[in-house]
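thoughts on my protein:
***
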Amino acid sequence: MRQFAKSFNIVFYVGLYSLYLNICPRSLVSGFGSTESVLPAEKCFCKLEGQIDDCECSVNTVDYFNNLKIYPRLNSLLLKNFFRFYKVNLERVCPFWPDFKRCATEHCSVETCSEEHVPAWLSTETKNSNGKFAHKYLKEAQNEEDCDDNHAGLGAVDDTLSEDTKEKFEKWQKYDESQENFCETENESSTDVRYVDLHRNPERFTGYKGVSSHNVWRSIYQENCFKPDHKLGPFTATKNLGELCLEKRIFFRAISGLHTSITVHLCAEYYTPSKTGFGSGNWGPNVPEFLKRFSTDKTDGEGPDRLKNLYFVYLLELRALAKAALYLESQSFYTGDDAEDGEVISAVMELLSIIKSFPNHFKESVLFPGKDEETAKLKEEFRQHFINITRIMDCVGCDKCRLWGKLQTEGLGTAMKILFSGKLDSDLSMPQLNKNSFHLTRNEIVTLFNAFGRLSTSVYQLENFRKLIKS
Protein backbone atom coordinates (compact mmCIF):
# COMPACT_ATOMS: atom_id res chain seq x y z
CA MET A 1 0.00 0.00 0.00
CA ARG A 2 2.84 2.40 0.87
CA GLN A 3 4.53 1.66 -2.47
CA PHE A 4 1.26 2.32 -4.27
CA ALA A 5 0.81 5.65 -2.47
CA LYS A 6 4.38 6.65 -3.31
CA SER A 7 3.86 5.80 -6.99
CA PHE A 8 0.57 7.66 -7.01
CA ASN A 9 2.20 10.78 -5.55
CA ILE A 10 4.96 10.70 -8.15
CA VAL A 11 2.48 10.42 -11.01
CA PHE A 12 0.22 13.10 -9.50
CA TYR A 13 2.92 15.74 -9.01
CA VAL A 14 4.65 15.09 -12.32
CA GLY A 15 1.28 15.33 -14.01
CA LEU A 16 0.54 18.58 -12.19
CA TYR A 17 3.90 20.02 -13.26
CA SER A 18 3.29 19.03 -16.88
CA LEU A 19 -0.05 20.82 -16.87
CA TYR A 20 1.71 23.98 -15.67
CA LEU A 21 4.22 23.79 -18.50
CA ASN A 22 1.67 22.33 -20.93
CA ILE A 23 3.97 19.49 -21.87
CA CYS A 24 3.63 15.76 -21.45
CA PRO A 25 5.26 14.34 -18.34
CA ARG A 26 8.58 12.71 -18.92
CA SER A 27 8.47 8.92 -18.98
CA LEU A 28 5.55 8.34 -16.67
CA VAL A 29 5.82 4.74 -17.74
CA SER A 30 9.42 4.42 -16.62
CA GLY A 31 9.66 1.42 -14.36
CA PHE A 32 6.03 0.41 -15.00
CA GLY A 33 6.44 -1.65 -18.13
CA SER A 34 7.54 -1.66 -21.74
CA THR A 35 8.79 1.48 -23.50
CA GLU A 36 6.04 0.83 -26.04
CA SER A 37 3.76 2.59 -23.51
CA VAL A 38 5.57 5.94 -23.95
CA LEU A 39 3.07 8.59 -24.93
CA PRO A 40 3.36 9.92 -28.53
CA ALA A 41 4.03 13.45 -27.29
CA GLU A 42 6.91 12.19 -25.16
CA LYS A 43 8.58 10.84 -28.32
CA CYS A 44 8.79 14.40 -29.68
CA PHE A 45 8.84 16.81 -26.74
CA CYS A 46 10.98 14.89 -24.24
CA LYS A 47 13.86 17.38 -24.60
CA LEU A 48 11.81 20.56 -24.70
CA GLU A 49 12.50 21.50 -21.12
CA GLY A 50 15.43 22.88 -19.21
CA GLN A 51 18.34 24.83 -20.64
CA ILE A 52 18.79 25.32 -24.38
CA ASP A 53 22.14 23.93 -25.57
CA ASP A 54 24.96 26.51 -25.88
CA CYS A 55 22.71 29.17 -24.31
CA GLU A 56 21.84 30.38 -20.83
CA CYS A 57 18.10 30.38 -21.42
CA SER A 58 15.43 27.74 -20.78
CA VAL A 59 12.79 26.39 -23.14
CA ASN A 60 10.03 27.41 -20.75
CA THR A 61 11.22 31.03 -20.73
CA VAL A 62 11.07 31.17 -24.53
CA ASP A 63 7.62 29.55 -24.61
CA TYR A 64 6.21 32.06 -22.14
CA PHE A 65 7.91 35.09 -23.66
CA ASN A 66 7.10 34.19 -27.27
CA ASN A 67 3.58 32.86 -26.97
CA LEU A 68 2.25 35.58 -24.68
CA LYS A 69 4.31 38.65 -25.55
CA ILE A 70 6.03 38.43 -28.93
CA TYR A 71 3.94 36.26 -31.24
CA PRO A 72 0.66 38.24 -31.00
CA ARG A 73 2.40 41.57 -31.61
CA LEU A 74 4.74 40.34 -34.33
CA ASN A 75 1.98 38.48 -36.14
CA SER A 76 -0.05 41.70 -36.26
CA LEU A 77 2.93 43.82 -37.34
CA LEU A 78 3.75 41.58 -40.31
CA LEU A 79 0.28 42.24 -41.73
CA LYS A 80 1.30 45.85 -42.39
CA ASN A 81 2.20 46.93 -45.92
CA PHE A 82 5.86 47.70 -45.20
CA PHE A 83 6.55 44.06 -44.35
CA ARG A 84 4.28 42.47 -46.95
CA PHE A 85 6.37 43.11 -50.05
CA TYR A 86 9.61 41.20 -50.59
CA LYS A 87 11.84 41.82 -53.60
CA VAL A 88 13.28 38.58 -54.94
CA ASN A 89 14.61 36.83 -58.02
CA LEU A 90 12.99 33.41 -58.28
CA GLU A 91 14.54 32.72 -61.69
CA ARG A 92 18.19 32.39 -60.66
CA VAL A 93 19.80 29.23 -62.00
CA CYS A 94 20.86 26.58 -59.51
CA PRO A 95 24.68 26.84 -59.41
CA PHE A 96 25.32 23.32 -58.12
CA TRP A 97 23.37 20.78 -60.21
CA PRO A 98 21.03 20.63 -63.23
CA ASP A 99 18.04 22.84 -62.66
CA PHE A 100 14.56 21.27 -62.92
CA LYS A 101 12.21 23.85 -61.47
CA ARG A 102 8.61 22.91 -62.00
CA CYS A 103 5.46 23.03 -59.90
CA ALA A 104 3.82 19.70 -59.18
CA THR A 105 0.56 21.32 -58.09
CA GLU A 106 -1.29 24.61 -58.38
CA HIS A 107 -0.32 25.36 -54.78
CA CYS A 108 3.38 25.48 -55.68
CA SER A 109 3.33 28.57 -57.89
CA VAL A 110 4.06 32.13 -56.72
CA GLU A 111 1.99 35.14 -57.68
CA THR A 112 4.35 38.07 -58.26
CA CYS A 113 3.30 41.72 -58.45
CA SER A 114 3.04 43.03 -62.00
CA GLU A 115 4.54 46.47 -62.71
CA GLU A 116 1.18 48.24 -62.47
CA HIS A 117 0.33 46.53 -59.17
CA VAL A 118 3.55 47.44 -57.36
CA PRO A 119 2.65 50.03 -54.69
CA ALA A 120 3.73 53.54 -55.65
CA TRP A 121 5.96 53.90 -52.59
CA LEU A 122 7.94 50.84 -53.69
CA SER A 123 8.26 51.83 -57.33
CA THR A 124 9.89 55.12 -56.29
CA GLU A 125 12.36 53.65 -53.80
CA THR A 126 16.01 53.83 -54.68
CA LYS A 127 17.29 51.06 -56.95
CA ASN A 128 20.60 51.07 -55.12
CA SER A 129 21.30 48.03 -52.94
CA ASN A 130 24.10 49.66 -50.94
CA GLY A 131 21.95 50.79 -48.03
CA LYS A 132 20.93 54.27 -49.20
CA PHE A 133 17.31 53.27 -48.65
CA ALA A 134 17.97 53.04 -44.93
CA HIS A 135 19.62 56.47 -44.90
CA LYS A 136 16.86 57.99 -47.01
CA TYR A 137 14.13 57.04 -44.56
CA LEU A 138 15.82 57.79 -41.24
CA LYS A 139 13.54 59.88 -39.06
CA GLU A 140 16.29 62.43 -38.59
CA ALA A 141 17.24 62.62 -42.28
CA GLN A 142 17.35 66.11 -43.75
CA ASN A 143 16.39 67.28 -47.22
CA GLU A 144 19.92 67.34 -48.54
CA GLU A 145 18.93 68.72 -51.93
CA ASP A 146 17.39 71.86 -50.36
CA CYS A 147 20.45 72.26 -48.15
CA ASP A 148 22.74 72.19 -51.18
CA ASP A 149 20.64 74.81 -53.00
CA ASN A 150 20.78 77.20 -50.02
CA HIS A 151 24.58 77.10 -49.96
CA ALA A 152 25.18 77.46 -53.69
CA GLY A 153 27.55 80.31 -54.56
CA LEU A 154 28.68 80.84 -50.94
CA GLY A 155 32.15 79.43 -51.37
CA ALA A 156 31.04 75.85 -50.74
CA VAL A 157 33.53 73.05 -51.38
CA ASP A 158 33.34 71.66 -54.90
CA ASP A 159 32.57 67.99 -54.24
CA THR A 160 31.71 67.00 -57.80
CA LEU A 161 33.25 63.77 -59.05
CA SER A 162 33.76 62.38 -62.50
CA GLU A 163 31.49 59.53 -63.58
CA ASP A 164 34.50 57.22 -63.72
CA THR A 165 35.46 58.06 -60.13
CA LYS A 166 31.89 57.58 -58.93
CA GLU A 167 31.78 54.16 -60.60
CA LYS A 168 35.02 53.15 -58.88
CA PHE A 169 33.75 54.33 -55.49
CA GLU A 170 30.57 52.31 -55.95
CA LYS A 171 32.62 49.20 -56.76
CA TRP A 172 34.85 49.75 -53.72
CA GLN A 173 31.87 50.27 -51.45
CA LYS A 174 30.09 47.22 -52.84
CA TYR A 175 33.20 45.10 -52.23
CA ASP A 176 33.64 46.42 -48.68
CA GLU A 177 30.03 45.72 -47.82
CA SER A 178 30.15 42.24 -49.34
CA GLN A 179 32.80 41.32 -46.79
CA GLU A 180 30.28 41.69 -43.94
CA ASN A 181 27.26 40.14 -45.68
CA PHE A 182 26.17 36.55 -45.16
CA CYS A 183 24.01 36.53 -48.29
CA GLU A 184 24.46 37.46 -51.93
CA THR A 185 22.44 40.59 -52.63
CA GLU A 186 20.03 40.57 -55.54
CA ASN A 187 21.01 42.35 -58.74
CA GLU A 188 18.47 45.17 -58.72
CA SER A 189 18.88 45.78 -62.44
CA SER A 190 17.85 42.23 -63.35
CA THR A 191 14.49 41.96 -65.07
CA ASP A 192 13.85 38.79 -63.04
CA VAL A 193 13.79 40.66 -59.71
CA ARG A 194 10.13 41.09 -58.79
CA TYR A 195 8.08 42.12 -55.80
CA VAL A 196 6.07 39.38 -54.10
CA ASP A 197 3.14 40.03 -51.77
CA LEU A 198 3.84 37.55 -48.96
CA HIS A 199 0.23 37.55 -47.81
CA ARG A 200 -0.93 36.27 -51.17
CA ASN A 201 1.71 33.54 -51.11
CA PRO A 202 1.59 31.99 -47.61
CA GLU A 203 4.10 29.31 -46.62
CA ARG A 204 2.39 25.93 -46.54
CA PHE A 205 2.73 22.35 -47.74
CA THR A 206 2.61 22.24 -51.55
CA GLY A 207 3.29 18.57 -52.24
CA TYR A 208 6.99 19.28 -52.89
CA LYS A 209 9.09 16.33 -51.70
CA GLY A 210 11.22 13.50 -53.03
CA VAL A 211 14.62 13.62 -54.73
CA SER A 212 14.72 17.38 -55.36
CA SER A 213 13.93 18.25 -51.75
CA HIS A 214 16.37 15.66 -50.41
CA ASN A 215 19.15 17.00 -52.67
CA VAL A 216 18.76 20.47 -51.19
CA TRP A 217 19.00 19.42 -47.55
CA ARG A 218 21.64 16.78 -48.23
CA SER A 219 23.83 19.42 -49.86
CA ILE A 220 23.29 21.81 -46.96
CA TYR A 221 24.20 19.29 -44.26
CA GLN A 222 26.85 17.22 -46.02
CA GLU A 223 28.70 19.94 -47.92
CA ASN A 224 28.16 23.13 -45.93
CA CYS A 225 27.82 22.22 -42.26
CA PHE A 226 31.06 21.70 -40.37
CA LYS A 227 31.96 18.11 -39.47
CA PRO A 228 34.07 16.42 -36.80
CA ASP A 229 37.58 15.58 -37.97
CA HIS A 230 37.04 11.84 -38.01
CA LYS A 231 33.53 12.03 -39.54
CA LEU A 232 31.05 9.67 -37.94
CA GLY A 233 28.85 9.27 -41.00
CA PRO A 234 27.94 11.81 -43.71
CA PHE A 235 25.99 14.10 -41.38
CA THR A 236 26.86 16.00 -38.25
CA ALA A 237 24.35 14.85 -35.63
CA THR A 238 23.75 15.03 -31.91
CA LYS A 239 26.00 12.03 -31.29
CA ASN A 240 29.10 13.81 -32.62
CA LEU A 241 28.18 17.49 -32.27
CA GLY A 242 30.19 17.80 -29.07
CA GLU A 243 33.38 17.19 -31.04
CA LEU A 244 32.99 20.55 -32.81
CA CYS A 245 34.14 23.90 -31.45
CA LEU A 246 31.48 26.34 -30.24
CA GLU A 247 31.33 28.34 -33.49
CA LYS A 248 30.81 25.21 -35.61
CA ARG A 249 28.20 23.83 -33.21
CA ILE A 250 26.31 27.11 -33.39
CA PHE A 251 26.36 27.01 -37.19
CA PHE A 252 24.87 23.51 -37.17
CA ARG A 253 22.25 24.35 -34.55
CA ALA A 254 21.17 27.44 -36.52
CA ILE A 255 20.73 25.45 -39.75
CA SER A 256 19.01 22.56 -37.98
CA GLY A 257 16.70 25.01 -36.19
CA LEU A 258 15.83 26.74 -39.47
CA HIS A 259 15.10 23.35 -41.08
CA THR A 260 12.93 22.42 -38.11
CA SER A 261 11.00 25.68 -38.32
CA ILE A 262 10.25 25.18 -42.01
CA THR A 263 9.13 21.60 -41.32
CA VAL A 264 6.82 22.74 -38.51
CA HIS A 265 5.20 25.30 -40.86
CA LEU A 266 4.52 22.61 -43.45
CA CYS A 267 3.07 20.24 -40.82
CA ALA A 268 0.89 23.05 -39.44
CA GLU A 269 -0.39 24.10 -42.88
CA TYR A 270 -0.70 20.67 -44.51
CA TYR A 271 -3.10 20.02 -47.35
CA THR A 272 -5.52 17.16 -46.85
CA PRO A 273 -7.49 16.47 -50.04
CA SER A 274 -11.13 15.58 -49.84
CA LYS A 275 -12.44 12.36 -51.29
CA THR A 276 -13.20 14.24 -54.50
CA GLY A 277 -9.49 14.88 -55.12
CA PHE A 278 -6.75 17.51 -54.75
CA GLY A 279 -8.00 21.06 -54.95
CA SER A 280 -11.09 20.69 -52.79
CA GLY A 281 -9.63 19.74 -49.42
CA ASN A 282 -8.53 21.60 -46.30
CA TRP A 283 -5.37 23.19 -44.91
CA GLY A 284 -4.49 22.49 -41.30
CA PRO A 285 -2.24 20.66 -38.83
CA ASN A 286 -1.20 17.11 -39.71
CA VAL A 287 -0.31 15.25 -36.51
CA PRO A 288 0.89 11.99 -38.14
CA GLU A 289 3.27 14.00 -40.36
CA PHE A 290 4.58 15.90 -37.34
CA LEU A 291 5.23 12.64 -35.46
CA LYS A 292 6.94 11.22 -38.54
CA ARG A 293 9.32 14.20 -38.64
CA PHE A 294 10.11 14.56 -34.94
CA SER A 295 9.37 11.42 -32.89
CA THR A 296 12.38 9.50 -31.58
CA ASP A 297 11.41 6.20 -33.19
CA LYS A 298 11.04 7.77 -36.66
CA THR A 299 14.22 9.89 -36.65
CA ASP A 300 16.85 7.63 -35.06
CA GLY A 301 16.45 9.65 -31.87
CA GLU A 302 17.25 13.00 -33.52
CA GLY A 303 13.73 14.50 -33.63
CA PRO A 304 13.62 16.01 -30.12
CA ASP A 305 17.06 17.58 -30.62
CA ARG A 306 15.86 19.13 -33.86
CA LEU A 307 12.96 20.73 -32.02
CA LYS A 308 15.32 22.09 -29.40
CA ASN A 309 17.50 23.60 -32.14
CA LEU A 310 14.45 25.63 -33.19
CA TYR A 311 14.70 27.38 -29.83
CA PHE A 312 18.38 28.01 -30.43
CA VAL A 313 17.94 29.79 -33.76
CA TYR A 314 15.00 31.69 -32.24
CA LEU A 315 17.34 33.06 -29.56
CA LEU A 316 19.96 33.92 -32.17
CA GLU A 317 17.54 36.02 -34.24
CA LEU A 318 15.95 37.50 -31.12
CA ARG A 319 19.38 38.74 -30.05
CA ALA A 320 20.01 40.23 -33.51
CA LEU A 321 16.82 42.31 -33.24
CA ALA A 322 17.81 43.47 -29.75
CA LYS A 323 21.32 44.36 -30.90
CA ALA A 324 20.04 46.36 -33.89
CA ALA A 325 17.19 47.96 -31.93
CA LEU A 326 18.75 51.43 -31.82
CA TYR A 327 19.20 51.37 -35.58
CA LEU A 328 15.74 49.96 -36.26
CA GLU A 329 14.11 52.52 -33.96
CA SER A 330 15.54 55.26 -36.18
CA GLN A 331 13.67 54.03 -39.26
CA SER A 332 10.39 55.54 -40.44
CA PHE A 333 9.15 52.38 -42.25
CA TYR A 334 7.83 54.66 -44.98
CA THR A 335 4.96 53.61 -47.27
CA GLY A 336 3.31 56.99 -47.86
CA ASP A 337 0.31 56.13 -45.71
CA ASP A 338 0.90 58.45 -42.74
CA ALA A 339 -1.64 56.74 -40.49
CA GLU A 340 -0.31 53.23 -41.06
CA ASP A 341 3.32 54.37 -40.96
CA GLY A 342 2.67 55.85 -37.51
CA GLU A 343 1.06 52.60 -36.37
CA VAL A 344 4.04 50.58 -37.63
CA ILE A 345 6.56 52.83 -35.88
CA SER A 346 4.65 52.50 -32.59
CA ALA A 347 4.29 48.73 -33.01
CA VAL A 348 7.99 48.29 -33.84
CA MET A 349 9.03 50.40 -30.86
CA GLU A 350 6.80 48.36 -28.54
CA LEU A 351 8.04 45.04 -29.96
CA LEU A 352 11.70 46.05 -29.69
CA SER A 353 11.15 47.24 -26.13
CA ILE A 354 9.81 43.80 -25.21
CA ILE A 355 12.63 42.05 -27.06
CA LYS A 356 15.26 44.14 -25.25
CA SER A 357 13.67 43.18 -21.92
CA PHE A 358 14.21 39.45 -22.56
CA PRO A 359 16.20 38.16 -19.57
CA ASN A 360 18.65 35.71 -21.18
CA HIS A 361 19.83 36.88 -24.58
CA PHE A 362 22.19 34.82 -26.72
CA LYS A 363 25.79 36.02 -26.15
CA GLU A 364 27.49 36.41 -29.51
CA SER A 365 30.51 38.00 -27.82
CA VAL A 366 31.80 34.54 -26.84
CA LEU A 367 32.20 33.64 -30.51
CA PHE A 368 35.29 34.34 -32.63
CA PRO A 369 37.34 35.70 -29.71
CA GLY A 370 40.63 37.38 -30.45
CA LYS A 371 42.00 38.86 -33.65
CA ASP A 372 44.47 36.19 -34.69
CA GLU A 373 44.69 34.74 -38.18
CA GLU A 374 43.09 31.43 -37.22
CA THR A 375 40.00 33.16 -35.78
CA ALA A 376 39.66 35.36 -38.86
CA LYS A 377 39.88 32.27 -41.09
CA LEU A 378 37.17 30.47 -39.10
CA LYS A 379 34.89 33.51 -39.25
CA GLU A 380 35.31 33.75 -43.02
CA GLU A 381 34.62 30.01 -43.38
CA PHE A 382 31.49 30.49 -41.30
CA ARG A 383 30.37 33.33 -43.59
CA GLN A 384 31.16 31.52 -46.84
CA HIS A 385 29.37 28.35 -45.73
CA PHE A 386 26.23 30.33 -45.03
CA ILE A 387 26.46 32.21 -48.34
CA ASN A 388 26.57 28.81 -50.06
CA ILE A 389 23.40 27.77 -48.23
CA THR A 390 21.57 30.88 -49.42
CA ARG A 391 22.64 30.00 -52.97
CA ILE A 392 21.37 26.43 -52.56
CA MET A 393 17.90 27.92 -52.07
CA ASP A 394 17.96 28.71 -55.80
CA CYS A 395 17.94 24.92 -56.37
CA VAL A 396 14.58 24.35 -54.68
CA GLY A 397 12.20 23.00 -57.30
CA CYS A 398 8.94 24.39 -55.91
CA ASP A 399 8.41 28.12 -56.49
CA LYS A 400 6.65 28.83 -53.20
CA CYS A 401 9.13 26.71 -51.23
CA ARG A 402 11.98 28.57 -52.95
CA LEU A 403 10.38 31.92 -52.10
CA TRP A 404 10.11 31.15 -48.40
CA GLY A 405 13.43 29.31 -48.28
CA LYS A 406 15.19 32.36 -49.72
CA LEU A 407 13.39 34.76 -47.39
CA GLN A 408 14.17 32.76 -44.25
CA THR A 409 17.83 32.11 -45.09
CA GLU A 410 18.30 35.78 -46.02
CA GLY A 411 16.65 36.78 -42.77
CA LEU A 412 19.01 34.53 -40.82
CA GLY A 413 21.91 35.90 -42.89
CA THR A 414 20.87 39.45 -41.94
CA ALA A 415 20.79 38.40 -38.28
CA MET A 416 24.32 36.99 -38.63
CA LYS A 417 25.46 40.23 -40.26
CA ILE A 418 24.12 42.14 -37.25
CA LEU A 419 25.77 39.78 -34.77
CA PHE A 420 29.10 39.05 -36.42
CA SER A 421 30.03 41.89 -38.79
CA GLY A 422 31.54 43.85 -35.90
CA LYS A 423 29.70 47.03 -36.93
CA LEU A 424 27.45 47.01 -33.84
CA ASP A 425 29.93 45.87 -31.22
CA SER A 426 30.78 49.21 -29.57
CA ASP A 427 27.84 49.52 -27.16
CA LEU A 428 25.44 50.02 -30.06
CA SER A 429 26.15 53.77 -29.99
CA MET A 430 27.35 54.39 -33.54
CA PRO A 431 26.29 57.73 -35.12
CA GLN A 432 23.02 56.96 -36.85
CA LEU A 433 23.48 59.27 -39.83
CA ASN A 434 27.10 58.43 -40.56
CA LYS A 435 27.05 56.99 -44.08
CA ASN A 436 29.98 54.76 -43.20
CA SER A 437 28.20 53.20 -40.22
CA PHE A 438 26.06 50.09 -40.12
CA HIS A 439 23.01 50.05 -42.39
CA LEU A 440 20.38 47.66 -43.69
CA THR A 441 18.51 47.77 -46.98
CA ARG A 442 14.72 47.67 -46.99
CA ASN A 443 14.84 44.03 -48.15
CA GLU A 444 17.13 43.11 -45.25
CA ILE A 445 14.73 44.68 -42.75
CA VAL A 446 11.78 42.89 -44.35
CA THR A 447 13.54 39.50 -44.29
CA LEU A 448 14.83 40.02 -40.73
CA PHE A 449 11.35 40.62 -39.31
CA ASN A 450 9.58 38.04 -41.46
CA ALA A 451 12.16 35.33 -40.79
CA PHE A 452 11.85 35.91 -37.05
CA GLY A 453 8.09 35.89 -37.51
CA ARG A 454 8.35 32.39 -39.00
CA LEU A 455 10.39 31.17 -36.00
CA SER A 456 7.94 32.78 -33.60
CA THR A 457 5.07 31.05 -35.39
CA SER A 458 6.86 27.70 -35.18
CA VAL A 459 7.37 27.98 -31.42
CA TYR A 460 3.71 28.95 -31.08
CA GLN A 461 2.61 26.02 -33.26
CA LEU A 462 4.47 23.54 -31.05
CA GLU A 463 2.01 24.44 -28.31
CA ASN A 464 -0.82 23.50 -30.63
CA PHE A 465 0.80 20.20 -31.63
CA ARG A 466 1.33 19.28 -27.97
CA LYS A 467 -2.39 19.72 -27.34
CA LEU A 468 -3.43 17.85 -30.48
CA ILE A 469 -1.15 14.91 -29.75
CA LYS A 470 -2.29 14.68 -26.13
CA SER A 471 -5.93 14.81 -27.16
Q: What stands out?
A: Strands lie at 85-89, 193-197, 270-274, 277-284.
